[in-house]
Each structure stands twice: as structure tokens, then as C-alpha cells.
């Protein structure tokens, strides 16, 4: 039996690897640019499987319109764009790639941290503008001796913490779902509440999923609790940060800078944040390397095919918790 697989993710998935895996399984593959629910619903009306990126909205409307849909594969980690409960109610399996880009995202978080700390974009613009002046980056402080706070402590944060070893920093983390001993294995101290992490950290790196509980987590109150010379690094989800509150905090001197790979709206369009020297931006690219694309594609397509063959997938999402 030939299965029809619709793919709405051509940026993240490696085309050659995807074709090789699906062709070997006698599956037809169709790509779509659909992102909004109505368009996605039309695209998957007769599909057996759907593979999506973070921008494709798989709502209850989509699930209801796809009578033959058996599985939705998220080409990535977060499933906040998928109504997992609606899928479960319809007998549709949702799966993801939990180990996706752990190396890349943790490295990118480190790069953004250093770029902010060492004012690299400011110096770059200055030199290219014909200047040769070290003072344009004042004030600047060394990394050694600082405290790095991690918001959530999953695989990405754990790998980031491992990379911080040897840099003579203290690392603390806030995650109510992770026991202290798991953090202690990496030399990380668990703090009991979010407010403590904010007040004690020189650098705050965000690794939390986007949920109803965490949306807008970094609001005006959170920035007010941070140190005036603190840096914020976000490689998780843009919706975790209230961007107006971030702009106000930066311009009022409540915090010193921010490294942002993800935004509340993507692409963000014109933003006052872009006018600030203390803000370093990248276009949701922390996931990317050629190696990560190939690994992602192979993992998600093979797991989708397991479901279509009537087998148990390796990485199903629990509809009760939204976790894997």
C-alpha cells in the first residue's frame, strides 16, 4: 500500500535524505507551503501522514479535516504548534525529534552569550564604519566569575551547562520538574524559584518550552528583578519574552543586553529592538548545521513510517502532558 505523506517543512528537512527514506518505503511525498489551519486542512485532506515545522499550525480543525491522517511528525522538538489532545482524540499519533540540534542550539546559545558579553556586533559595525576605537564597547566585563542562570534544564540546557565547564563560572538553574541531583551531576546548583534565578544571575539563558504556563514569562516584573548589568539569551521560543517589556528594560537600563535567536513573530518585521546596540539577533537559526538537517530528516521520517506500518514510534508525544 502506498502512503501519502504531506510535508510542510522544506527549510529544516534535508531533501535528499527525506526522499531516500520515503522512497524506500513506497511513500509518495507532497510538499506544501500551507501554514495557517484552513490551508493546512485542505492540504492534508487525504493524507496518511503530515510532517511539519514550528510554523505550521496543526489545530483541531486540521485534524478533523484529515479523515485518513494517522500521524503528525514534528520536524523538531517543540510541539506548541500542534493540538496534541485533539490529535489523540482522533487517534492520530504525534511525534517529535527530542534530540534534535542539541549540539547546535547549545553552541548557538554560547555564541550569542559571548557576542553580547564581548560586544562583537558593536565592534564589527565600528570597524567597518572606519573607526578603530576600543572604547565603543564600554563597559565590558569578563566571563570568569559570573553566574549563568538556566531557565529549564532539559537536554539543551544540560549540553549548554557542559559547555560552560572550564570557563570559571557558577551555573544555577530553575526547573521545578528536574531534581537537584540531575543538575548536580553537571555542577549546576538548583534554585527553588524563578525570582531567585533572576536576581542571582549575570547571564540568563532561556531553554523552556512554550506553554500556557511559560508564555510571557519574561515580562516587566521579571526584567525588574534582573541585575542592571545582566544579559538575556533566548534560543527557545520567542513567545517566552514580552518584547515591549524587553525594549523598555533595555532602554531604561534595567538590563544590559539580549541575544535573541527566536521572536514572538517570525519574521519579526520592523522592531525597535533592532535599533539597540545591546541586542544581538539571528533568524531562528540555532538549529542549523548540515549534519543536524540530515539527522532530523532521517529520524522523523523513519518514525512516521513506523506508525504507518502499525509499529510503535520511538518518540511519541504524551497527550496528557505534552511531553515525550
Automatic annotation (TrEMBL):
InterPro entries in the cross-refs: CtBP (IPR043322), D-2-hydroxyacid_DH (IPR050857), D-isomer_2_OHA_DH_cat_dom (IPR006139), D-isomer_DH_CS (IPR029753), D-isomer_DH_NAD-bd (IPR006140), NAD(P)-bd_dom_sf (IPR036291)
Assigned protein family: Belongs to the D-isomer specific 2-hydroxyacid dehydrogenase family.
PANTHER family according to UniProt: D-ISOMER SPECIFIC 2-HYDROXYACID DEHYDROGENASE FAMILY PROTEIN (AFU_ORTHOLOGUE AFUA_6G10090)
Keywords: NAD, Oxidoreductase
Alphabetized GO MF terms: NAD binding; oxidoreductase activity, acting on the CH-OH group of donors, NAD or NADP as acceptor; transcription corepressor activity
Domain D-isomer specific 2-hydroxyacid dehydrogenase NAD-binding, residue spans: 110-286
Coiled-coil portions: none
The protein's name in its UniProt record: C-terminal binding protein
Domain named D-isomer specific 2-hydroxyacid dehydrogenase catalytic: residues: 17-317
Amino acid at each position: 500500500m502506498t502512503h501519502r505523506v504531506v510535508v510542510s517543512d522544506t527549510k529544516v528537512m534535508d531533501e535528499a535524505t527525506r526522499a531516500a527514506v520515503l522512497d524506500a518505503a513506497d511513500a509518495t511525498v507532497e510538499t506544501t507551503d500551507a501554514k495557517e489551519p484552513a490551508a493546512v486542512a485542505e492540504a492534508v485532506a487525504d493524507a496518511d501522514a503530515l510532517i511539519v515545522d514550528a510554523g505550521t499550525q496543526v489545530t483541531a480543525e486540521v485534524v478533523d479535516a484529515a479523515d485518513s491522517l494517522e500521524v503528525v511528525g514534528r520536524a523538531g522538538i517543540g510541539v506548541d504548534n500542534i493540538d496534541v489532545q485533539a490529535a489523540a482524540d482522533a487517534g492520530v499519533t504525534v511525534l517529535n525529534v527530542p534530540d534534535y540540534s542539541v549540539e547546535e542550539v547549545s553552541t548557538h546559545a554560547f555564541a550569542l552569550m559571548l557576542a553580547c558579553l564581548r560586544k562583537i556586533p558593536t565592534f564589527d559595525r565600528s570597524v567597518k564604519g572606519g573607526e578603530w576605537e576600543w572604547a565603543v564597547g564600554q563597559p565590558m566585563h569578563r566571563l570568569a566569575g559570573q553566574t549563568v542562570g538556566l531557565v529549564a534544564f532539559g537536554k539543551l540546557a544540560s549540553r549548554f551547562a557542559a559547555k560552560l565547564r572550564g570557563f570559571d563560572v557558577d551555573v544555577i538553574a530553575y526547573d521545578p520538574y528536574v531534581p537537584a541531583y540531575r543538575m548536580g551531576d553537571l555542577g549546576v546548583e538548583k534554585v527553588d524559584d524563578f525570582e531567585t534565578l533572576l536576581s542571582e544571575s549575570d547571564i540568563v539563558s532561556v531553554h523552556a518550552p512554550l506553554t500556557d504556563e511559560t508564555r510571557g514569562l519574561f515580562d516587566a516584573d521579571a526584567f525588574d528583578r534582573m541585575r542592571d548589568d545582566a544579559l538575556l539569551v533566548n534560543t527557545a521560543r520567542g513567545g517566552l519574552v514580552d518584547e515591549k517589556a524587553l525594549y523598555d528594560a533595555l532602554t531604561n537600563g534595567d538590563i544590559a543586553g539580549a541575544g535573541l535567536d527566536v521572536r514572538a513573530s517570525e519574521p519579526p518585521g520592523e522592531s525597535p529592538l533592532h535599533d539597540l546596540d545591546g541586542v544581538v539577533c539571528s533568524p531562528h537559526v540555532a538549529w542549523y548545521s548540515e549534519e543536524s538537517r540530515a539527522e532530523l530528516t532521517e529520524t522523523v521520517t523513519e518514525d512516521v513510517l513506523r506508525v504507518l506500518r502499525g509499529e510503535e514510534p520511538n518518540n511519541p508525544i504524551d497527550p496528557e502532558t505534552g511531553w515525550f
